[in-house]
Design goal:
The structure is a homotetramer of 188-residue chains.
Chain A: E1 7-12, H1 18-32, E2 36-41, H2 47-55, E3 58-62, E4 65-66, E5 69-70, H3 72-81, E6 94-101, H4 108-121, E7 125-126, E8 152-155, H5 166-187
Parallel strand pairs in A: 1-2, 1-3, 3-6, 6-7, 6-8
Antiparallel strand pairs in A: 4-5
Chain lengths: 188, 188, 188, 188
């Protein structure tokens, strides 16, 4: 791996395991493009994790949507990270978001907006997945099935308990690959 | 019908017919509760329609979500209505919104947020449908299937061309009934 | 005071005291209209406070905007309140929001959107202040100085440490009075 | 100028001239960094302008905030540009936004959210100005005076008719320079 390999941090919170699975899928897609991913469970975040966040080229934020925004545990993480606002420590890093809810809409867009406004305050550059969506391109079964573009949306509406849709994981891998490519393009 | 019968105006724009069907369903539900509904196609809006809007107790705004917000034709309607902002002509009226897109999310929440901010500028009081959603209460087949609460969301993802889901129409009827009940409660 | 006196609960979080002052101003305006207000500091919330929230006719949510949304402590309060979602215990109550930040914009709208989506999920009816704004009506010095309509916005940009602008408190009193009037109108 | 000079398109709508002045300031800042800017008045857009949009490395969207979103004329422009969604013609371009209203908040964030969701649908990469804001760093008189980070916010509240604040123009120049630097970094 060259010096310019992109470092991607994925700080996430997962109440029922869905968001964790999406984080893993994104990391897999990124690593296949030569990136080095750090998946960080914010409930057990360590000083080393914070160091990885600070040196990352890209940070992808992930949390389930509870009651119209990120889960409260994640809001606490964002507020702590906000201590880096004044010095703009994270400025010019790539940022993105992923979220899961029961429903297709589930007000998940509100979570992604919340994350994108946070990222903008931190001076970060926001990238979403750019998959058109499976119903428009039927050949791409399950890709971006909910039709969300600001970030990745997963649903548990039609899955067994604890599982996400296979298409959501595929969408995650694509998103990870996209972020890795952008990151490499920016760090050449 | 008593003097206090609620007048509900439903100014809508419909590109492919879906939003028009939702408007009709909402009006049906409202009228069954004793309200008098005026469905208004904003592409053919007349002076009489504007008069009905001005004297309505409630205005429910409906437009498909195109490219992350209300269709442009509807944006033009809202801007024209904004001429009533300075005098707060529509203040204290009940307001609500409905929108349709291909996908479950489809960024429809952005349309409902756009409508709710507009309504707030006009001094209106915002009400959404309050159906929990069919996946949570499986007995209520198709009700609020996308999981949207700020307003009504319909999808065309799984329907024949030009059709909305039967559950979206049922959700519309419930929404209309809810608005009529609130309107009556406020005008006693 | 008649039996129909409106009960208004104001659960707030205040980091530096600004939001607490706005809460007090809103309560003052509401009580002058015959309402009974309960100001609740969510950092010290008790079982009795929760009972007051449950029996209130209106709930006005208040928190400073930190990093693009409600302060994290308030996000935790909202999530706990979300335990009442499934049974829609708060449905049909009046809801509104108030927030403070350093700046005129300060992304305070994001906080109000977050609160209004939460309220919609809870089945509540959203009302904002409907003051046009002081720059448009110069006679109303300091009223709605930031130009926010979805809810009340306060700023600390030009005030001594810990203080809010006098106009923000006046706007708060008007907002409280408006909510009390609406609440009375709905409970007759 | 090298082959890698960044091409920046600034399609804008301006009702009273404020937004046009911001567009000019951004272009000035970008060109000083070696970019080539095309300022496009969407009321008089030509086929050549569309070609410039299609070949641009970055597109900065600008419109005043009217009634809680972009001016309706601009909504029509966005919808027309949306014809490029299916083929993702604008994917991977840098995107950003600027808006002007009377007030400090003026619901300008809603306009920037609307633009960022549009850009995400188009597969674009969103960048905001990352100036902390003048009240926090008093030395930077007038820079980001409203405290907006998702995009550039200007106000006309305290200016002579038709004028924007000098600090808004300075903020614009900085934003243009930032976009040009990012664009160069991405095209090396």
């Amino acid at each position: 791996m060259s010096k310019s390999a992109c470092i991607i941090a994925l700080p996430y919170y997962s109440g029922a395991g869905h968001t964790a699975q999406i984080a893993t899928a994104i990391a897999k897609g990124a690593d296949r493009q030569g990136a080095t991913s750090h998946i960080i469970d914010i409930e057990q975040i360590t000083a080393r994790d914070w160091a990885n966040l600070d040196r990352a080229d890209a940070i992808l934020f992930g949390a389930p949507t509870y009651m119209g925004s990120v889960a409260a545990a994640y809001a606490a993480f964002l507020e702590e990270a906000g201590g880096r606002w004044m010095d703009q420590t994270w400025a010019d890093k790539v940022a993105g978001g992923f979220t899961v809810a029961t429903f297709g809409s589930g007000d998940k867009l509100a979570t992604l907006q919340r994350l994108s406004v946070f990222a903008a305050q931190m001076g970060m550059i926001w990238v979403g997945p750019n998959d058109i969506g499976a119903p428009v391109f039927p050949a791409e079964a399950g890709i971006n099935a909910d039709g969300g573009w600001l970030g990745l949306m997963g649903s548990s509406i039609s899955t067994p308990r604890g599982a996400v849709r296979p298409g959501d994981l595929d969408t995650g891998q694509r998103f990870g690959a996209r972020v890795a490519r952008l990151c490499t393009r920016m760090s050449r």
